[in-house]
Write a structure and sequence with these properties.
By secondary structure, the protein is of the alpha/beta class. Helices cover about 50% and strands about 10% of the residues. The strands form seven sheets. Strands 5-8-11-4-12 form a five-stranded parallel β-sheet. The radius of gyration is 35 Å and the shape is globular. It starts with a helix and ends with a helix.
Length: about 950
């Protein structure tokens, strides 16, 4: 049977090939194709658009959109006319040669007498130290200038005749061979004929090339331990062997300079670090003084002035914005931003002798640097003191006397801009269209260049705002697994897309939500056996890393994701449009997503509050058409009222649209990640986004809370330790809270031990609306027994609490031995990982029964029995995980002196014998604390009743 797209093409050709140009409005529609050929409308639209892109069909304007057969595909004719370069139109511009003084290259470095003074002195000492100099390590954050500094050291060595004039600095990036020690050895030291299959002749390594000179090992922390051992043996002895040789018969005289962004003490072998006597630390951009930051801007502007052969002027606010825009990327990021600003300025002033850049010429991202800087009053004041209202830099200025660095473009971007503008102008395009085309080119050129240099600026930081760092770490491990196992390249956004996917399904597992496998996804996964096999390994790796059970059905989704993340994928994706009220609300969210996922099928529609609905609808429709690739569009909006546009947009554009409201940056990230997956269905995507709960947090780090707001409501969950049952009740309540999106309610887990000291502080900072757990703290808030939270609908209880209803109206849980046991088994199944409630309930129940009988507690107090069973289950799981609770040292002696200890120890020994587990004294302490607390509460209650009887 013919392919679907071929059947569509044949049908359109038969129906429209005979039509004249005047009759093109009689072409076929997407709906007609779908009905006649019996296929889905979305598939029909996707294939029709693909045929249009291939030049086989023609798309006619109008509503509904119609398609007609096109006899011959549109091909671009070769350029036949002569178009003069923009440089030929410039008269009287002479480019003088630039003389660079390299006698003391370090004297030209910004901060040589300031923040870089110590670094410069260390470098000079390392180079000049007799007899052959010292090996050294350059450390500093990404973009701080390590590569440039290494080149400066080499030039200094040349001018001081430490190395010969005809030698070159040999650069080797250790990350390229980090996971293959043999390949690393062959590149470093060379190999002999026959060393491995394909080694048909002897080959020299880079050590040979660097003999008598200098070797720069970039990203040296990526060297595996075996590679570090090879290098430090060579450092010690100056001899080495090639791969395939048994004796170290070769000698070389090489000065080694390494560079790393990591802490050498943790990233490198101690034996390796000991052999590098000098560690040169370069400061981050934000650690440099104000005058150095301004000088760095000037020097980089001077580079661009020399390239354009025009003077460039910047206002004070532009300089401040550029400085404020630097975050994670340091000097490298500053250089990229300056290149982007100057390229845009050149485009706007191409036929003028001066490129004048004002704050209005900056992109939104760079302009926001001014706001960022304003938050740092001290730095803003320092810059204002020394900044002139306007800075002007001339081409070939003395300030230019610096060498290029690794972030220097290998081509003249301005020549590309100028010549392309001349070409487009000769084709009759107006200036606005030319600017649009070339602005896109500028971004592509710069983005491509910096990605090739592995320089992503603050994208990793941005990702860490949405995804736990542990997930990012495991995703990097998965990336290395995938690269070694699959024979093709992956997209740049692999880490981000995979991190978000893992985070999302871990969150679902945490919430107890099941994903039902879609048949289409399963069938597609089976078509890719290599990826499917690898997906199983990836799932098992994630399970082992996070100690969590992941359903095998997740293999299908991981397979589809791996296939979708191949480089050079075909088009046909679902489009994404974000529409939100405010001047930049939507564009801010989209900017983050584009930076993280490198997405080009998402658009933002900002709607100022004074924008009329007709204009908003028009802009949204235009954006929907821009991102349409034939599979429909997801519209993400901030208010439910915008969902009413849905039907109108579909009628006007003929494009299927689904609308999801309450948009957040996380929701946009999830949407764009999912639409990149091959074969994604619009309706399935819509349903999954409606249930999206955000990304998981798996770290145990403290989350900062503002506790100054007395209106913030809280529920206090109390157990013996504050880390067992209370934490699990906390999870149950938070799960219910997340479903109702009640941001003002917090759940605080508390230990009995800390009750007296911490509860007053909590009462001061929160409005406690209820307490729950193993004991009633007797405060002005209802106490909800633990079994009630387990057996009743938590959401109903929360509704009543938040609406300040009478809780007594809810029906109490009627407990007997059977219902109490069922409650325990259910709670253990949902909240414990390593405990089987059905198997353990009988020994746990006998233990609790014997313990309560020994302590004189009525065994029919099923509420306390449930507390005791669940606390003991927590004890068992903590012992299994080797994570027992701890006790303050001064409390140790109280355990065995407690009168209850003798009564507890016998049933406890029986339980230990039964389940083959030994409980530490610290766990026994909290068990005793729990029983004593219950006995004290009973005594308090009985005394209270006796007093009331006496009064009566």
């Amino acid at each position: 049977m013919a392919k679907r797209i071929d059947r569509i093409y044949t049908y359109v050709k038969e129906k429209t090939a005979h039509l004249s140009i005047e009759e093109n409005d009689q072409g076929v529609t997407t709906q007609e194709i779908a009905e006649v050929l019996g296929i889905q409308r979305t598939n029909s639209s996707k294939d029709l658009n693909k045929l249009v892109r291939e030049g086989k069909l023609k798309k006619m304007d109008g509503r509904p959109v119609r398609y007609v057969y096109q006899e011959s595909p549109i091909t671009e004719k070769p350029l036949t006319k002569y178009v003069p370069s923009y440089k030929e139109e410039m008269t009287g511009v002479k480019k003088p040669s630039l003389q660079v003084d390299t006698k003391d290259i370090f004297a030209k470095i910004i901060g040589a007498n300031g923040s870089m003074k110590n670094s410069v002195e260390q470098a000079k000492a390392a180079i000049l130290y007799p007899p052959r100099g010292l090996n050294c390590l350059i450390t500093g954050p990404t973009g701080s200038g390590k590569t440039y500094f290494a080149h400066a050291m080499f030039h200094f060595a040349k001018t001081n005749h430490v190395v010969e004039d005809d030698t070159e600095l040999i650069v080797f990036n250790c990350a390229d061979y980090a996971n293959n020690p043999e390949l690393l050895m062959s590149h470093l030291f060379g190999y002999v004929k026959g060393a491995f299959t394909g080694a048909e002749e002897e080959k020299m390594g880079i050590i040979d090339q660097a003999d008598g000179g200098m070797l720069f090992l970039d990203e040296i922390h990526r060297l595996p331990p075996e590679g570090q051992e090879m290098i430090f043996y060579f450092m010690d002895h100056g001899t080495y062997s090639r791969l395939g040789e048994t004796t170290k018969s070769h000698e070389a005289n090489v000065r080694i300079v390494g560079a790393t962004t990591e802490d050498p003490g943790s990233a490198l072998l101690e034996t390796f670090v000991r052999r590098i006597p000098i560690n040169i630390k370069l400061p981050a951009f934000d650690r440099r003084p104000a005058n150095e930051k301004i000088d760095l801007v000037k020097i980089m502007i001077a580079h661009e002035a020399n390239r354009t052969q025009r003077k460039i002027s910047l206002t004070e606010d532009v300089v401040k914005a550029l400085i404020g825009s630097v975050t994670y990327g340091n000097i490298g990021q500053l250089k990229s931003n300056i290149q982007l600003v100057c390229a845009r300025g050149f485009l706007n002033h191409m036929n003028k002798p001066e490129i004048s850049i004002t704050i209005d010429d900056l992109t939104e991202g760079i302009r926001s640097g001014l706001i960022q800087l304003a938050s740092n009053r001290k730095e803003m004041a320092e810059l204002s003191k020394i900044l002139d209202p306007k800075i002007t830099v001339f081409p070939n200025d003395d300030v230019m006397q610096l060498q290029a660095d690794s972030y220097e473009l290998p081509y003249n971007l301005y020549d590309i801009i100028g010549d392309k503008a001349a070409l487009l102008k000769s084709d009759g395009l107006d200036q606005e269209a030319i600017n649009h085309f070339i602005s896109t080119d500028i971004n592509i050129h710069l983005k491509s260049f910096y990605k090739d240099h592995g320089f992503s600026f603050n994208a990793d930081n941005k990702l860490a705002e949405f995804v736990d760092p542990k997930i990012i770490e495991v995703t990097n491990q998965i990336y290395m697994m995938v690269k070694q196992s699959l024979p093709y390249e992956f997209q740049q956004n692999f880490i981000y897309a995979m991190s978000l996917h893992i985070s999302s399904f871990l969150k679902r597992i945490h919430l107890g939500e099941e994903r039902h496998t879609n048949d289409n996804i399963r069938e597609m996964a089976i078509d890719f056996p290599e990826e499917y096999s690898l997906a199983k390994e990836v799932r098992q790796h994630i399970e082992a890393y996070f100690q969590v059970d992941i359903p095998e059905s997740e293999d299908y989704y991981l397979t589809v994701l791996l296939v979708s993340l191949r480089a050079n994928q075909a088009s046909g994706r679902i489009g994404v449009v974000v529409a939100a009220h405010g001047n930049s609300t939507a564009s801010s969210m989209v900017q983050v997503v584009q930076q993280l996922l490198d997405a080009d099928n998402v658009r933002a529609v900002d709607m100022p509050l004074d924008m009329d609905p007709k204009t908003a609808l028009s802009r949204i429709e235009r954006s929907v058409q821009e991102v349409d690739e034939g599979s429909g569009t997801i519209l993400l909006v901030d208010m439910g009222s915008l969902a009413s546009f849905n039907t109108q947009i579909q009628q006007d554009t003929g494009i299927p649209v689904r609308t999801v409201d309450m948009v957040t940056t996380s929701l946009v990230l999830e949407t764009v990640r999912k639409v990149s997956v091959l074969g994604t269905d619009l309706d399935l995507l819509y349903e999954s986004l409606k249930n999206f709960r955000g990304y998981a947090e798996v770290s145990s780090g403290e989350v900062s809370k503002e506790v100054t707001d007395k209106q913030r409501k809280a529920v206090v969950a109390i157990c013996a330790s504050g880390e067992g049952t209370a934490q699990r009740i906390k999870s149950l309540i938070e799960r219910a809270v997340s479903k109702r999106q009640e941001a003002q309610l917090e759940v605080i887990a508390l230990s009995i031990v800390d009750l007296k000291t911490k509860l007053p502080e909590i009462q001061k900072n929160y409005q406690i609306i209820a307490t729950t757990g193993i004991t009633d703290p007797h405060i002005a808030a209802p106490f909800i027994p633990l079994e009630r939270f387990i057996d009743q609908n938590i959401e109903v209880i929360l509704d009543q609490l938040l609406l300040e209803s009478e809780l007594d109206e809810t029906e109490d849980v009627l407990l007997n031995e059977e219902t109490a046991k069922t409650t325990c088994v259910s709670f253990i199944a949902e909240n414990f990982t390593f405990i089987n409630g059905e198997k353990l309930i009988d020994p746990l129940w006998r233990f609790a029964d014997g313990l309560m009988d020994s302590a004189g507690i009525d065994v029919k107090e099923y509420g306390f029995m449930i507390n005791l069973v669940l606390h003991t289950a927590g004890m068992i799981e903590r012992v299994v995980l080797d994570e027992p609770l701890s006790v303050e040292r001064q409390e140790d002696h109280l355990i065995e002196n407690d009168p209850l200890y003798v009564k507890v120890i016998e049933p406890l020994n029986d339980l230990e014998e039964k389940i083959k587990v030994k409980f530490p004294l610290e766990e026994v302490y909290y068990l005793l604390k729990m029983i004593n607390n219950h006995l004290e509460k009973k005594e308090y209650t009985n005394e209270d009743i006796h007093k009331k009887d006496t009064l009566l």
